Amino acid sequence: MTEQEILQTALEAGFGDARLCRDGEGRPRLLTAYPYLRAKEHGDARISSYYYASQRSYLLLRGLAEKLCAAGLPCRRDDSVPLKPLALAYGLGVQGRNSLVLHPRFGSQMVLGCLLLEAELETPEPAPIRRCEDCGACQRACPAGALKEFAKVDLTRCLRTNMLSGKPYPPQLRPLLGDRLLGCDACQEVCPHNKGLEKPGGDGEPSLYALLAGDKACYQRLKAELGPNTARKNRLLAQALLCAASKKDPGVRPLGEPYLQDKDETVRDHAAWCLQQPKDEPLGGQTNAREEKHAGNAARAANPLRASDAAEDRGRA
Ligand code: SF4
Ligand code: SF4
Prior knowledge:
The chain has 317 residues and is of the alpha/beta class. Helices cover 37% and strands 12% of the residues.
């Protein structure tokens, strides 16, 4: 296959863009970008559209690998190298302050994927990395103050990064979660590169009731839509218990009681935290910008990790 035919096959498979590139060891790779639109509406347990797209991209990439192999180009899926630096060096987008790659058409709303190609191919030369215009909107919108330096996320603070660890969620960040079950889009929603990249309606997310009630059909559907790794029952349940803590609906929190005796340590820990939260006071973590600012200020005042932010804010003034 020629280089042009490889790229064309990727586009025909359903990817929005693709590049041939070389990794740090000089091995040729096919880098893919699968774009998605962000859902405008959410249920009471919000799952970022990224996670649905990520599973679709994974399935497409598997199909693409089979197609290329059948056409005489041996290749396999391989995510062992960081994809963002490759995407930046080979022109898939510019570097955003929020650490994400911003594609000229898809903004940061794309899933990167990669195939390792076992053939000798011509690849373009990497180019210098370009930066976004650094408007600062993502930094201001981050409810956890995780974006301080350009393109560096403070992983100890990022709400999204801490969600899939399987460990108890950092207590100081819990009041900021609100209805975020999986993912946090605050630093992408405000980015001008993502303007208009929304879709009406939602992704059909499950209700918090179904998750906390252990509804089998609900978990099976999520497994199919998000992939078995992302949709592990204990992970979702543990996150659902944190979301439940922010709900005023008196019927939700009691659903957490059976999980006080759960076998999983993280589920037990989150259930206990959920049931200990004051019922009539807001926890913070709501997802509109004004409320996020309020929640961020409240959390800053309430915990020592965030106290350093307040000091920096004063210094800036
Ligand atoms: S919001 Fe502004 S600073 Fe942040 S990534 Fe987008 S363009 Fe860059
Ligand atoms: S994902 Fe959320 S918490 Fe993480 S940097 Fe972006 S806005 Fe901040």
